[in-house]
């Protein structure tokens, strides 16, 4: 048995001129559950099992492949009755022939298990990061209020000489201040850690990728006193995302909206499919950003950083990192804001 026959991945050679599979190894029967002797007869049925959302996407890659403009690895999904989606990764090869045609070879790997694990990991990270943000704002507001009351009482209370009241108020004020800093440092560390890991993009439905974080935020904002709405397109819209990093960006932008929107204010996340791109808008009706500060927002350690309405600190790195991560996705991040009326941050990404 040769190396190709022993390989656990499906390997095949397709002749473009005859439109027939010339060779497929035995892994075809294990991975795709067919009979390799009848592979050409089974091919139409196999293609019919392609996920509907992947068909147009793969057709574009096929046009490149037959011209020798080999794309990178392509991920696709196969459907079967009463079975979970089967995820496959295709590595394409191209060999021109003396007759002017070509042989297309490829390796198919079943990546269903790794996709399942990645989905669970992304869901866990989304819930963890969103919960941290919600708790940080909730606790920050409480600690900031305690700190302010302690500072006020320190100036108002006339304690007896032998009383411990003055020292107790000092401890209360410093403890609240240090707790605020610890909470924000923890959240900032999570974001910085995420930003500094390698980018792992995959083709995903943007609405499906964002839905867990938006649902968590929607539940959390009812506790924080804001009205939070999200609007997702009814049809799938695909983009190449590192889901963990990208949801952190949306989380951070919503966090900024919370910081500068008074209690009872509105925050909205809207996903819009557009020709060739997808746009995500994060809209609030908070205090807005002065025009003079807007050109500085995305600078490292920007001078535009301000305390939140509830005393939240800022490192001046958040928006710069958001913009960097969006640009790693070949996208753009822009701001539109009017002081006293609110702000809109817009992410635009290439659509697949």
Write structural notes for this entry.
This protein is of the alpha+beta class and 352 residues long. The chain has 2 domains: 3-110, 2-Layer Sandwich (Beta-Lactamase); 115-350, Histidine kinase-like ATPase, C-terminal domain (Heat Shock Protein 90), CATH 3.30.565. The protein is 45% helix and 23% strand. It has 9 helices and 12 strands. The strands form 3 sheets. The chain has a 5-stranded antiparallel sheet with strand order 2-1-5-4-3. A 5-stranded mixed sheet has the order 7-9-10-12-11. It has a two-stranded antiparallel ribbon with strand order 6-8. Helix 5 (112-156) runs parallel beside helix 8 (243-259). The two termini are 40 Å apart. Mean pLDDT is 83; it is low at 1-6.
Reported CATH architecture of the largest domain: 2-Layer Sandwich
Instruction: Let me know the CATH homologous superfamily of the largest domain.
Output: Histidine kinase-like ATPase, C-terminal domain
Strand order of the largest sheet: 2-1-5-4-3
**Strand composition percent:** 15-25%
Approximate shape: elongated
Q: At the first level of CATH, what is the class of the largest domain?
A: Alpha Beta
Structural class: alpha+beta
User: What is the succession of H and E elements?
Assistant: HEEHHHEEEHHEHEEHEEHEE
CATH fold field value of the largest domain? Heat Shock Protein 90
């Amino acid at each position: 048995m040769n190396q190709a026959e022993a390989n656990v991945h499906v390997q095949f050679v397709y002749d473009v001129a005859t439109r027939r599979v010339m060779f497929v190894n035995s892994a075809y029967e294990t991975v795709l559950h067919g009979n390799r002797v009848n592979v050409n007869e089974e091919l139409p049925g196999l293609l019919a099992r392609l996920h509907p959302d992947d068909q147009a996407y793969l057709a574009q890659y096929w046009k490149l492949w037959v011209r020798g403009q080999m794309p990178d690895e392509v991920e696709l999904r196969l459907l079967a009755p009463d079975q979970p989606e089967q995820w496959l990764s295709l590595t394409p090869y191209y060999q021109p022939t003396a007759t002017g045609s070509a042989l297309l070879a490829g390796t198919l790997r079943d990546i269903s298990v790794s996709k399942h694990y990645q989905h669970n990991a992304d869901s866990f990270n989304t819930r963890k990061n969103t919960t941290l943000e919600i708790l940080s704002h909730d606790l920050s507001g409480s600690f900031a209020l305690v700190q302010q009351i302690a500072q006020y009482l320190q100036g108002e209370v006339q304690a007896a000489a032998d009383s411990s009241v003055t020292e107790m108020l000092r401890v209360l004020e410093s403890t609240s201040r240090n707790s605020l800093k610890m909470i924000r440092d923890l959240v900032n560390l999570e974001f910085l850690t995420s930003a500094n890991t390698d980018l792992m993009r995959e083709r995903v439905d943007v609405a499906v990728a964002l839905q867990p974080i938006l649902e968590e935020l929607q539940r959390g904002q009812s506790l924080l006193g804001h009205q939070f709405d999200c609007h997702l397109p009814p049809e799938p819209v695909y983009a190449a995302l590192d889901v963990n990093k990208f949801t952190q960006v949306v989380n951070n932008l919503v966090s900024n909206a919370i910081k500068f929107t008074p209690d009872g204010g509105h925050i909205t996340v809207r996903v819009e499919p557009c020709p060739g791109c997808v746009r995500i808008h994060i809209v609030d009706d908070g205090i807005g950003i002065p025009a003079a500060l807007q050109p500085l927002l995305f600078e490292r350690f920007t001078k535009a950083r301000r305390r939140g309405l509830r005393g939240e600190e800022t490192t001046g790195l958040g928006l710069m990192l958001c913009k960097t991560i969006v640009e790693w996705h070949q996208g753009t991040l822009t701001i539109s804001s009017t002081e006293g009326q609110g702000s809109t941050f817009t992410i635009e990404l290439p659509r697949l």
